[in-house]
Design goal:
heterodimer, A: mainly alpha, Fumarate Reductase Iron-sulfur Protein, Chain B, domain 2, 7 helices, globular, B: FAD/NAD(P)-binding domain, FAD/NAD(P)-binding domain, 2 domains, 5-stranded parallel sheet, binds iron/sulfur cluster
């Protein structure tokens, strides 16, 4: 029988009603300054890791805030905790501690 | 006979200009189409960014109206004529009022949210406007859904009828961003368990202390801001609302259910302004609002000698700016009368 090239793509849509926010609440309790983020992208622009890989710290923590955590553990390994992003952030987000909290959280919640 | 001024429109700008002109000894006739002064101000509960009760501002404006101001409510204007020295405002019943100068303070209308059909205002029970929400605050009511439940999640949609070629309004209405943030905080204060999301394209927190309000909304109340313009909403069987948006900061489409959706309707030129502008031969700007002779130097004067503008008849503005503009108009008018 002739095989047609049909396949089903996974849904790219974020379904906010279904995503898991328990990790987020845990992280925010450690580092509430994440809530002040104004999504300016300064952290990403200054990030050395982001210059050489597709690592985008702003996108990583924005996805976290939507409860999208499937790639979180893999992504966060790319950060070398140099702290440049935190020096540049205009909203006072304590990014280093945020990233450390993410490390703790992914272990604790085993994602 | 002393010189006199007719002011058309008894909202904030009309009241403040009347007070200032009267304080400088001129007779003022203040014409208002509805049965009360104050215009949109009367529909607000608390004002941004100070959270002052709107009634306090109304009281201040009312106190300015001394016995030199004749207030005429429920007025319908039929025609306006002008000879080289006077204006004649002819009312529907044929009465003619005469003055040496004329000030238009006919303000704005709120964009009719139902025109953005895809958002479902007037179709789905749990889609309301910021004005509807403000009315709930004013009645000190609990914020409830149509099913009389406390909403667990509320969405605010920015730029409804503004920055939208499809709605015919390319301009920004300036104050809806801060209105949404103020109202979001107020819901949290009343009902702290509510989750709140604002769907915005840009947050235009341009004026003094507005950014502080935004900061408070995020840091103190955990209100979340998702960058993306709502594409559509639909109603779930339980009458909650499903919204669809691109979360442009993650580059992914996003959907979520909210129990109540608040549309931040923008400003449009008021229908009365358009009629009067026609009668007086004034040409509106590209946005439909009226334009003074010069945007820097002659901000209240028009091409017609003795005819002045103040307030939101010239476009979206905050209450503070409207009051200041009315004072500026009063100075220009006094200078004109004493010429
Ligand atoms: S701390 Fe991590 S995310 Fe921040 S600049 Fe350094 S490598 Fe990038
Ligand atoms: S620099 Fe700070 S405010 Fe800007 S995106 Fe990064 S964390 Fe957010
Ligand atoms: S003030 Fe904000 S919500 Fe209103 S039109 Fe401008 S950008 Fe949109």
């Amino acid at each position: 029988m002739k095989q047609f090239g049909y396949s089903i793509n996974p849904d790219r849509q974020i379904d906010y009603d279904l995503t898991d926010k328990s990790l987020l609440s845990f992280i925010v309790s450690f580092e509430p300054s994440l809530l002040s983020c104004i999504s300016c992208g300064t952290c990403t622009a200054t990030c050395t890791a982001g210059h050489f890989t597709d690592f985008n710290i702003r996108r990583v923590h924005t996805l976290l805030r939507r409860g999208e955590i499937t790639t979180l553990k893999k992504e966060i390994q790319k950060c070398m905790l140099c702290g440049k992003c935190q020096l540049a952030c205009p909203a006072g987000v304590n990014l280093r501690n945020l990233i450390r909290s993410i490390h703790v959280a992914v272990e604790k919640f085993n994602v | 006979m002393g010189k006199s001024v007719i002011i058309i429109g008894g909202g904030i700008a009309g009241m403040e200009a009347a007070a200032r002109i009267a304080a400088m000894g001129k007779e003022v006739i203040l014409l208002e189409k509805s049965d009360q002064l104050g215009g949109h101000l009367r529909k607000w509960d608390r004002l941004f960014p100070t959270r002052r009760k709107s009634d306090e501002v109304f009281e201040y404006l009312s106190n300015g109206l001394n016995d030199k101001v004749t207030i005429r409510l429920n007025i319908k204007i039929n025609k306006i004529k002008k000879d080289d020295r006077h204006f004649f405002v002819i009312l529907e019943d044929g009465e003619s009022l005469k003055s040496d100068a004329l000030l238009l303070t006919t303000g704005y209308d709120l964009f009719e949210a139902g025109k953005k059909e895809e958002y479902g205002y007037g179709i789905y029970d749990n889609v309301i406007t910021s004005a509807d929400l403000e009315a709930m605050f004013r009645n000190s009511a609990e914020i409830k859904t149509s099913g009389n439940q406390k909403p667990r999640r509320v969405g605010f949609v920015h730029c409804v009828g503004s920055r939208d070629e499809k709605a015919g309004h390319l301009y920004c209405s300036k104050v809806c961003c801060v209105t949404g943030v103020k109202q979001a905080i107020e819901i949290k204060e009343k009902q702290p368990d509510t989750e709140i999301f604002c769907f915005y394209m840009d947050l235009r927190m341009f004026d003094r202390y507005f950014e502080d309000l935004y900061y408070e909304a995020q840091q103190k109340w955990g209100i979340q801001f998702i960058r993306g313009r709502l594409s559509e909403s639909c109603e779930n069987p339980d009458h909650s609302i499903l919204v669809k948006v691109e979360d442009t900061l993650t580059g992914r489409p996003l959907k979520m259910t909210v129990d109540l959706l608040v549309l931040l309707s923008g400003f449009v030129p008021s229908s009365d302004t358009n009629k009067l502008a026609d009668m007086l031969g004034l040409l509106p700007g590209s946005d439909g609002f009226l334009t003074p002779v010069d945007e820097h130097f002659r901000t209240n004067e028009t091409q017609v000698d003795g005819l002045f503008l103040a307030g939101t008849v010239k476009g979206p503005a905050t209450i503070e700016n409207t009051i200041t503009d009315a004072r500026s108009a009063a100075i220009s008018i006094i200078k004109y009368l004493e010429k």
